[in-house]
Write a structure and sequence with these properties.
single chain; 0% strand
């Protein structure tokens, strides 16, 4: 919800942002006018506005998956051994006693 009047109206009706999901477009339009359909979209997680980031990056993440589904126990054990080797390599790259989460360089 944005806007003082919309927040006040929701408070008067006892409606929270998750409650908006219970209403259809027609009902929200009746209650909130032209903003009703927009509120429904926002409650469903749809927001067409571009994301604008003006802050410093806090972290970087990279994910990778195995080329095929690992279902057999032996395959899982082999994959775990590979990950253990990777963990060891990462530990060797970080000086002893330094917090791995530190962003200082």
């Amino acid at each position: 919800m944005n806007g003082y009047a919309s927040r006040r109206r929701c408070r008067e009706l006892g409606i929270t942002s998750t409650d908006l999901l219970r209403f259809d477009r027609v009902e929200l339009t009746r209650r909130f006018g032209k903003n009703g359909p927009r509120f429904l979209l926002l409650a469903r997680g749809h927001d067409p506005r571009p994301v604008v980031s003006d802050g410093e990056r806090q972290s970087v993440s990279i994910e990778d998956t195995f080329p095929e589904e690992l279902l057999a126990r032996d395959d899982l054990c082999t994959a775990e051994e590979s990950l253990d080797g990777l963990r060891s390599l990462i530990r060797s790259c970080v000086p002893e006693g330094r917090d791995r989460r530190s962003r200082e360089r």
